[in-house]
Design a protein that fits this description.
Blueprint: H1 2-21, H2 23-60, H3 68-77, H4 81-93, H5 103-116
Helix pairs in contact: 2-5, 4-5
């Protein structure tokens, strides 16, 4: 009786191996893996995204003097922490000239970057 269990086990493993090698099964399992990976990326990026939204709200909420292209630029700069870091080092610390934000708007944006803690480590 024990031999029949062993044979059934071997056949079961062989069927699983054959099934996993089929193209449509690989596509399904691969798609599920990509979906799971996407969920993990979203969850890991949530704290960063929250900081960026806080910065956007702090700067754009009461700033009615911005033109549409300037607002678009702020959204582009605040699309990632790396872009904010680059902006901050280039235009706030190195005092380079920015064609989109200048004068009081630039000073306020630099101040908001500091006050919202976007550049602080997570």
């Amino acid at each position: 009786m024990n031999i029949w269990r062993w044979i059934a086990g071997v056949l079961g493993v062989l069927l699983i191996i054959v099934a996993l090698r089929m193209t449509y099964v690989q596509t399904f399992v691969g798609g599920a893996g990509e979906t799971f990976s996407g969920w993990v990326d979203i969850l890991m990026g949530a704290p960063e995204r929250a900081r960026l939204v806080k910065l956007q709200n702090a700067f754009l909420r009461n700033n009615m003097s911005l033109k549409p292209h300037q607002t678009d630029y702020v959204y582009e700069v605040t699309s990632s922490i790396d872009k904010v870091r680059l902006f901050y080092s280039r235009y706030c610390l190195a005092d380079d000239k920015n064609p989109y934000l200048f004068g009081n708007n630039l000073m306020k944006f630099c101040s908001d970057i500091n006050q919202t803690g976007v550049l602080d480590p997570l």
